[in-house]
Structure formats: structure tokens, C-alpha cells
Amino acid sequence: MTINVLRGKARRGAASLTPALIGEADEAVFSCPACARPLVVGARRCPGCRTRLVMGIQLGRAALFLTLGVTLGSLVGGGLVAFIVQDRLHMVARPVAADIVPNTAPTDAAPLASVPIVPIVAVPAIPATAIASLGQTALVNARLADAAGELSQALASEPIDTAVVASALRAITTDAASALSVTSRLGTWPAAADLAGDMRTFYTDARAVARAGLGASLANEPAYREAARSMLAVLGSLGTLDAESRLLAQVAGVTLPPVDLPSATDAAGPTGPGSEPLP
């Protein structure tokens, strides 16, 4: 009986060493690395020893392998990037260094200390409103020049046509009023401040003379003749203002519309060289 008992224990011990079947194919079963218990592929924990598994490997070993892999990959990748960057820097620096040739030839040039240093002065920008004002006043001056031509022709006729003179005076009043609002914007350019002041005086005088002449009756021929002469005297400085405007336009790099000045508005004045005295 003792022998049979021992045989039974031997059989049970031999059976315990044989992996138990769990109903899966051989290729879908692996042994637990800790207790050799057969497990299904993909198991995350051994039900026998409670060991956590990652792809059939203990979690601790898998973490160790992952850490070693990341460390080695970083070292290899960083070294490769450093090598490529250093090689690129050498390629860029070589042509520059090849072009630098030391100047060993004797020279008679003066030392740097004796070379005068010219300071760079910043040129202020021209206001856009001032440039636009130059063009607008040029258009007004062109209309005033046309009105001056009409007044000259009216004075040359006998009897004087008071309706023509009145029409010219009304046009001058409107143009002078619109130009006065433009001269303030022209004065924002320091170089044109003097011209803006002269234009302001010119347009103010022209408007005042025109209003005074329009106060007379159309039947008052002597009054309109005198108003035409007074207006031509004021418009006599139109040529000078136009010349100054064009000089500033050249500085600003703009082109002004042409102004056809009659002889009564010569740049030297209504009685200057190149024009006949006013009738």
C-alpha cells in the first residue's frame, strides 16, 4: 500500500510538470515567464502569479527595454543631427573664407582717423496732403488764368460787356473760396509754408475784389470796368505763385497740370517785362 501511495504521488508530480491544456492551439499559447503557466497570447496578467505582462514579457523588463531603446535612439539621432549641422556650417563658411584675401600691398591712402565723417541727416517725409494741395491749387490757378483772359478781352471792347465781367468775377469768387481751404493743408509741409501764406493772401484779395465788383449794378459800366482792372492787378502775381508751386512740385516728384497764363498775369507782375501795362 505504501508503494502504491508513493507511485500515486510520483504520477501527480509528473503530471504537474506537464503544461496543462487550456483549449487553445499551440501557436496561440505561451508560458508565463515567472511561473511557466500556459497563457493565451495577448494576456496582460498571469492568473497564477499575478505578473503583469506586455507582449509576453514582464512589465518591468518591457519598461527597461523601452527606456534603453529611447535612450540609444536619442543618442544616435542627436549625434547624426549634430554631424549634419556641423557639415553644413563648414560648407557655408568655406566659400566666405576663400574670398577673404589679406591685403599686403603697400598703400598711400590716408589713415582712417583722418577721413572726415559726414553725418547722415534724415529727410522728413513730405505730407501727402501737401502734395495733393499743390495739384489742387494748380487747377484753381488754371481757372483763374482763364478768368483773367476773359477780363482782358472785356476791357479791350467798347462798350464793356458787364455780363462777361460779372460772370468772370463770380467764377473767381468760387475758385478763391475753395482754394483757401486747401492752403492750410499745403502749410503742413515746412518747405511750402511761405508759399501757403502767399497763396492765402492772394486768394483772399481776389475774393474780396470780386465780391466788391459784383455789388454794382450790371448797368454801371464804369464800376465793372474798374472791377476788372482791379482784379487783373490782383491776378498779376499768379505767374509768380505758379512758378513757386512748380519748384516745390519738382522737389516732391510730382507733375502739376499746365497753367496757360495770359500776358496780364506775367511772373514779373501786371506791368513787368514781357507784358503790356493794364488798360
Question: Can you describe what's shown?
Answer:
This protein is mainly α and 279 residues long. Helix content is 58%, strand content 4%. It has 7 helices and 4 strands. The strands form 2 sheets. The protein has a two-stranded antiparallel sheet with strand order 1-2. Strands 3-4 form a two-stranded antiparallel ribbon.
Shape designation = rod-shaped
Global Rg: 52 Å
* Major sheet characteristics: 2 strands, antiparallel
Strand order of the largest sheet: 1-2
Strand-pairing-aware structural class: mainly alpha
Tell me the series of helices and strands, N- to C-terminal: HEEEEHHHHHH
Average pLDDT works out at 75
List how many beta strands DSSP finds.
Answer: 4
Unreliable residue runs: 13-21, 95-101, 266-279
**What is the strand content?**
under 5%
Enumerate how many helices there are, as a single number: 7
